[in-house]
UniProtKB/TrEMBL annotation, chains A, B:
Pfam families: MTTB (PF06253)
Keyword Methyltransferase assigned: yes
Enzyme class of the recorded protein, top EC level: transferase
GO biological process: methylation
Endoplasmic reticulum keyword on record: no
Protein name listed in UniProt: Methyltransferase
Family statement drawn from the similarity comment of this UniProt entry: Belongs to the trimethylamine methyltransferase family.
EC number: 2.1.1.-
GO-annotated molecular function: methyltransferase activity
Keywords: Methyltransferase, Transferase
UniProt-annotated stretches for the region Disordered: 1-39
Amino acid sequence: MTIPDAAAEAQPEAGRTRRGGRAAKRGGGAGAFDQPPFRQLTVPFPPTEIVSEDELESIHLASLRVLKEIGIEVLHDEARAIMRRHGADVREDTHRVHFDADMVLELIAHCPSEFTVHARNPAHNLRMGGNNIILAQIASAPNCSDTDHGRRPGNQADFRNFVKLAQMHNIIHCLGGYPVEPIDIHAGIRHLECLRDITTLTDKTFHIYSLGKERNQDGIEIARIVRSVSAEQLRDEPSCFTVINTNSPLKLDIPMLEGVIQMAAHGQVVIVTPFTLAGAMAPITVAGALVEQNAEALAALAFAQMVRKGAPVGYGGFTSNVDMRSGAPAFGTPESMKAQLIGGQLARRYGIPYRSSNVCAANTVDAQAAYESVFSLWGCIHGGANLVKHAAGWLEGGLCCSYEKMMLDIDLLQMVAEFLTPLDLSEDALGVEAIREVGPGGHFFGSPHTQARYKTAFYSPIISDWRNYETWAQAGGPTSIEHANRLWKERLKTYEKPPMDEAIREELDAFVERRIREGGAPTDF
Amino acid sequence: MTIPDAAAEAQPEAGRTRRGGRAAKRGGGAGAFDQPPFRQLTVPFPPTEIVSEDELESIHLASLRVLKEIGIEVLHDEARAIMRRHGADVREDTHRVHFDADMVLELIAHCPSEFTVHARNPAHNLRMGGNNIILAQIASAPNCSDTDHGRRPGNQADFRNFVKLAQMHNIIHCLGGYPVEPIDIHAGIRHLECLRDITTLTDKTFHIYSLGKERNQDGIEIARIVRSVSAEQLRDEPSCFTVINTNSPLKLDIPMLEGVIQMAAHGQVVIVTPFTLAGAMAPITVAGALVEQNAEALAALAFAQMVRKGAPVGYGGFTSNVDMRSGAPAFGTPESMKAQLIGGQLARRYGIPYRSSNVCAANTVDAQAAYESVFSLWGCIHGGANLVKHAAGWLEGGLCCSYEKMMLDIDLLQMVAEFLTPLDLSEDALGVEAIREVGPGGHFFGSPHTQARYKTAFYSPIISDWRNYETWAQAGGPTSIEHANRLWKERLKTYEKPPMDEAIREELDAFVERRIREGGAPTDF
């Protein structure tokens, strides 16, 4: 099932070869720096199937057994009532709900396979599903860091800086949540201040936390205001999303279920992501963790369809392993890559857009941060991820949003985007005449074929230091983290606020101020 | 065409799940350290096709036009004579040889699609082609470095250390050449000393440089001596390989052609790898560079088949781009990844084993070294590479063999190997009973399903630091390069020489000493 894309004409062109660095459109404030233009990314090859159809079916069937025989603990009274009305076997004494396979499969068949997520700037609308990929900034880090001032708890000043970096960089398609948790804002009004910042400092689409009904409702209203549409139009045009992390194993708590109800009822996107770390909240085997992931995902996705048939959703995979010595979660591991690929196979089996992540467990921007992240991106791309959460900035297993990691990830993502850009195979690009002209033993540097293309032929990385060893050593031997540190400071200075209609700004402020006066939202979630 | 694998029973078992770290066989000297056992790696999914069949055909046809219309400059008289005898259009005045498409395709149809490369220890035999991957150590770096003593020109002591590390680590399947060039050994006898070291310090298969007929002949004789087989048996059992880098564009020099003649005539493996850097020795477009790569590869591969039908060969791709500001080669770039994938499609089109590389342009083991390397490995795995040269140790675009990068790469390769290991999807691994037992809201740490598996469930990285931030910071905040530095020193101390029959050792020494007395090989190559 595909939601018709009414705003297709407003979509950024999924055009051909765009290059980075010197060659491309300028970002941030006009003329601030060069970067590839904002565009909808697509993957030009099919995802990698790492298990056979039969093997996939064994995971699918095992998860249906879990739903039928073991069931899910559902803590929300209204949610259980909804489930009962849809034929689930609800046991009120234990809050345990058992789901029949047929019922689950009938319900998830209503999940749309593809839809558009609308931004207040239509040029930043995003297509979710199919072979499209959306890259979202890191979310929910309690700490942040840079190499100048070290590590510190999240705060509004850093929060705003990261939000600005998300707006400035075209490769970051949307916000993924709060890049860092600004704990200097009272929790009752934090969502109001943060969403006001996000919707004024950026014109991209964004995430709403499911931490109580009021936060969902406030977020949805803010999405409506900044897009200047009616509640009815918003319901038909998803404009924000929430991530529902189940309490693995097999538990759905009140704020989550409330989030599903509010978002689905209002036609906004629900990304269900079980938090199934193998060996901790899930079986130690990757297969077992996937069975649990799939059972939990199917239950919550089916519930979203009970709330509203056709509600836009995403199937999230976050299965990784833990360090069995410490219990700490590990990321970018071979086990998590397998889980990423199989998670994608499962999501495609159900025809649901797939969410994965760019994550690492490193404590600093060293080789480990890079290899764990690129392994994660490898899993995302070949797993067929449609939404990559935490695509930029994630360090320390998500406990820190790093300025330097943000810049490193921007470079990594731009490289991946270039890798995915279809190759020019025109007669001229095949270059037989250029080869003839240069001939055996010649050189292409000076040839007209080269001269006509050298400025735009290749992606220019922003972190990589390609100087030879001697020149590099004379310059003090800077490492990647030092380049990244220079870069975010240079770029942040050039930030310019995206335009917003004065009337919209006033309506937004009036809403936020009123809700703040009302005391915001309860903090007992 | 597949060479029958007479030694199949001697093959290491391509078995199921093997884990790293604590769980696996010990390496080096008995009990020295834990590592996954030596095994033939295979890829459990098909390679990624990044261009369509039609697009691939356009590259194929363009390269045949290059061979027909432009031709290759062939500097070796006997080689031109052989080519003429096989129907090529040879122009003696310009040394230019033009090849007919039908002739080329008829010849390369004789290339075996799969064969075994024999080591003196049959447990280290390797299968080349199909879905097998062989990982070879870095070759030919002029410099080496470690963080204790910095960067220095190659020398015999470091050469021996690197060769020992290749022997000790099961994930390094074979030597790829001289990991570092020991310039303190006279060039005339260097190959004799180096191959004596390689064949006594390791029992793995190895590379012979094609730098004049004598070096090929000496190397082949050493391969024969250490395997203790007849020349006839050796001809049927490839036991060493050479890499032929064409002088791109479109030129084959005397040592290369001599190398092809010697190796093919003796049934040893010829890996043809055009050195087609887009924008320098090849057109600036990736498509054009691939056309040139393919033309040069086909010419040299066809020549190998002229020398001996069925000679074991490999199709090498090394197409990357250059930094257009400096002309320096770049590695692990998005452009090179595309070239890796399409190179694999071309090799499979011809049914020839495919060679690629794990390369980077970084000057130190920082984030850049890691991301460029993992991007390269990504291209290798999804490109369907059968031989990954420079798999461990490569830094600075190949100008330096780094001890720390060697350890980093060993970890990366072990992670990739684990990613490729088929997942256990048995009923027990699916874990429905474990999930039932733990139930909603429970924890898997203490469950019997976890307890029975926790020691071997996951790969344990050797570089990654998974401590939490506080513990890590208290320990001084070590980065990956520091872990790598500690590791190679610890491990190298535990090296133990593999056994060699006394008679073989005497025959080897006698041969090497005689050839040294004779003056070795000419140095005017």
